[in-house]
Amino acid sequence: MQRKSLDLWVGLFVLVGALALLFLALKAGNMSTFSFEKTYPVVTKFDNIGGLKPRAPVKSAGVVVGRVADIKFDDKSFQAQVTLELQSRYQFPKDSSAKILTSGLLGEQYIGLEPGGDTANLAAGDQIKMTQSAIVLENLISQFLFSKAAEGDSEK
After folding, report:
1. pLDDT at position 137, please?
2. Are 53 and 63 in contact (CB under 8 A)?
3. What SS3 class is residue 69?
4. CA of residue 94 relative to chain centroid, distance
5. Alpha-carbon torsion 61, 65, 67, 72, what sign?
């Protein structure tokens, strides 16, 4: 009887460990936030998306209102085309703007939506025209170094 009890506890411990590993894998892959809510696609174009990834959150006022569905390169405009899946319960004006922001110390990137003032709302397949690309740290450092180098040249 004691052997069966021990086998039961070991089996239960292994099951809990497997569930914990599954949870961590889903969290690491940003897949733990599946939703069966109705959504509508909206397209945006950015000059530089930095480290933005599919399934990244789309937030407005700090609230998650959707997810990044797809990222492609548009070879006609030479920009990144990002498709957003916004939840149907959230409606945004047609003149809303989108920008790529960074949250936290680890630098997870997400898209921030700022509502405009238009009376008509975005519909499925519409495009957000006003966008702001990601701030890339390497570009900021190079601009700083070039400005310091230019200051040094002008002093001579």
Report:
1. 73
2. no
3. strand
4. 21
5. negative
Average pLDDT for the chain:
86
Q: What is the distance of C-alpha 110 from the center of its chain? A: 3
Q: Which residues contact 96 (CB under 8 A, 6 or more apart)?
A: 113, 114, 115, 116, 122, 128, 130
Residues 82-109: tens digit of each pLDDT: 999 999 999 999 999 999 998 876 678 8
Tally Cβ neighbours within 10 Å of residue 111.
26
Residue 82 region by backbone torsions, left for phi larger than 0, else alpha for psi between -120 and 50, else beta: beta
Output the six-digit token pair for 67: 């997810």
Question: What phi and psi, each to the nearest 5 degrees, are found at residue 13?
Answer: -65, -40
